[in-house]
Each structure stands twice: as C-alpha cells, then as structure tokens.
Amino acid sequence: METEPVRGAGPVVGADGVARCPWGAGDPVNLAYHDTEWGLRVHGEAAHLERLTLEAFQSGLSWLTILNKREHFRAAFAGFDADAVAAFGPADVERLMADAGIVRNRRKVDAAIANARATVALRDSGGLEAFIWSFRPEPGPAPRTTADVPTTSPESLALSKALKKAGFAHVGPTTMHALMEAIGLVDDHLEGCHRRGVAG
C-alpha cells in the first residue's frame, strides 16, 4: 500500500459518492493516481523501470512526495530509458545530487543507475517486464480493511531475491510488494473500492 492513514480502515466514500481505498480518498494527487493508475498493468521496459525506480526512491518517504516529483524524475532519468541511464557516469551522479526536483539520496541514485544496467543485461533472458511478471501470484481474496493488506508476500520476497541476484539494488521485499501492487501483479484495492478488480 502506498500510504496508510489509518490501520484497519475500510473504503472511504468521497464527496463525489465514490468509495476508495483510504490513501486514495484525500489529496487530489493521490486520488488521481489511485483512480487512474494504481493497480493497472503497465507495458514496456521503460514503464517497468520507472515504477521500480520510483518505488525504490519512495522507501522511507511518503508516496505523495514521489508523485509530486514524478515529472522531475522522468526528466532527470532520461524518461527511464535503460540504455541512457545505464550510461550515466560520475558527472551525471553529481548532476542528480544537485537536482532539487528529485530525492537527493546518493545510495538511491547509484541504485537507479545500477538497476538500469541490470535491466539492459536482462534483455538476453526475456527482459525486465517478463522477469517481474513471472512472479505474479494467484489472485487472493479482497482485503476488507487496510489491516488485511500485506506489506510483503512470498512472491515479493522471491522477486526481491531474484532481482538482487541479477544485479539490482534497493529492491527489498516490501518495496517489491509495493511495485507489484502498483503495476497490477496483485490487486490490493479494498473490497468495496470502485477500483477493485482492475489489476493485471
């Protein structure tokens, strides 16, 4: 789950009469992301690298912070073109560390570059998208409240280990579960949320 305002809360009905997961029922940016993107499948290498990178940068921060900086991230990381980011050198790292439009964390910046290089290397074995989707679990029951939404799963742990083995960094099991939620490998929209059932 991207953010969690109240543990154990059920869907929240907004002023528009629509029921949503609690984290998507407040701030307009979160609401738009919840209603139009979270849980929907994405396609292509760049889209998967973007989501993986943003989830890694989010670790320890609010998801709203990342969403508000998303366009800056896209510009700073060459639209998440893996070849371009893989070619980044020390000067690019210093440029990124001076860019107030993104989250300036050297370990995460270094990880983003390492992950682009690992993404390029994965092309020989089917590519990043197929690799991530090979860890898709069987659909589970709809969570009724936020207390029912897991933060990790056996599949996110397995994906984390496999990505680390392939040279990726900042891809822990909690971060990978958030990625799996975001791109529709799992459907963690709550029972009663109007977006329940859109995953995959």
From TrEMBL:
One term of GO molecular function: DNA-3-methyladenine glycosylase activity
Keyword field contains Hydrolase: yes
Keywords from the named record: Glycosidase, Hydrolase
Any single Pfam family the record assigns to this protein: Adenine_glyco
Keyword Hydrolase attributed: yes
Assigned EC number: 3.2.2.20
Coiled coil feature spans: none
The organism's place on the tree of life at top rank: Bacteria
InterPro entries given in the database record: Adenine_glyco, DNA-3mA_glycosylase, DNA_glycosylase
UniProt-listed PANTHER family: DNA-3-METHYLADENINE GLYCOSYLASE 1 (PTHR30037), DNA-3-METHYLADENINE GLYCOSYLASE I (PTHR30037:SF4)
The name this protein goes by in its record: DNA-3-methyladenine glycosylase I
Species name: Nocardioides renjunii
